[in-house]
Amino acid sequence: MSSHAFRSATNGAASALMLMLLVTCAAAQNSILTNVDLCNGRDHTSVEPQINGCTALIKSEADNTRILMIAYNNRGNAYSSEGQYELAIQDYDRSINLNPNWAKPLNNRGVAYEKKGEYDRAIQDLDAAINIDQNYAEAFANRAEIYQKKGDYPDALKDFDEAIRLQPTLRVVWNERCWTRAIIGELQGALADCNEALRLEPNVAAAFDSRGFTYLKLGRWELAIADFNSALRLDQKLATALYGRGFARLKSGDLTRGNADIAAGKTVEPSIVEDFARYGLR
Q1: Is 10 helix (H, G, I), strand (E, B) or coil?
Q2: Tens of pLDDT along 159-170?
Q3: What residue segments make up the domains of the chain, in order of their start?
Q4: For residue 155, how far is the Cα from the chain centroid?
């Protein structure tokens, strides 16, 4: 469902650069350490300082393979966070070429390809990351999200299960497994997952949205409306919550507000009616 509030488990976490830079001048040392901090993404709100810090390190450490592979990965993360996926992929390529056995840039490049809608290429990268590190919970979670978007719910559930087994505190995974279970009709399991997602993160619209969707499938209209209200307080333009609340209101006999919500949901996401119909909600 394209309008659901997907949140990748990781869009590329920064890798801490090893501070093994030998310098002879205190001023030079201060400059290099500042670039390390910037490239690691510390203490700034804009990604430009991170890009600049990584670029400076890349230029100054041209012969240090370990520094370069991390700096390219981190700069790729910064580009990806700005939606500059082609530049991000170019940097991940460079990092992977420097060390083909490092799983992190493969995972991150997979996320970038996912953001571009190139799901098959994304899965190839995530497969490679998992082959290198079979305990990489974020890579399992990211691959599961792609399977979910492709409509391959059995494989999505397998990967969500593995991600939760490896890292139960990976909060977004509980919500996404809830959504997947609700789609295929595992409704009590879905409720348990959404409750855990909300316990871990009480103020996330996606988790209220997923639980509201689960209540829709259970025919519990008032509980669905309450959860969609909570989701919409956090994200006023969440199409699934607007349409879902409208659906529940219509079922409850509130035709005026139900039709208004349905219209609002369709305005945000024109395919929302077809999306809900695929899951048996007509």
Answers
A1: coil
A2: 999 999 999 999
A3: 29-100
A4: 17
